[in-house]
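Researcher: Here's a chain I'd like modeled. Treat it as a single chain, no partners, no ligands.
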Amino acid sequence: MSAPLTVVLPDAKAVKDMLSGLVGKPVGVTPGAPVTPTPTEPVSVAVYVSPTMAVNALCVMDLPLSAWSAGALALLPPGGVQDAVEEDGELTAMLTEALHEVVNVLSALFNVPGAPHSKLHALHAPGDDLPGDVAGMLAAFNRLDLAVDVPAYGKGRLSLVVP
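Model: Modeled as a single isolated chain. Structure tokens:
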């Protein structure tokens, strides 16, 4: 009898390498605090599913990291991205589109030999309402919480959750 196939959390180095390769700069990644949505601190939530459409992983970013990673990928001026975070408190359509690409690429972190294939199913941008089942999964204890520093943009927080 073999062990059931499960999705496993990547380590911090894998996240660092993936983000650094994605934005073309050495991204800083250290242990951090869990990212949870609150009325005053919106988050983005990427939902990854298995081939049977079962939710098998979540990627949660606070608003700053959502903006910094999207802005760095899209090569947007850091000042304009900072305005979106500090003055508007939300992502522009362009930043949301770039964030979609960031979290789509991050799905590769979960696709390792022996684990079921994970693909991006949905991205809930900061401020969007989360489905109740997804919101409930954010409290799972099988998680990796990181502080991320995107050069020229800023610091933010990221949590990877396997429900």
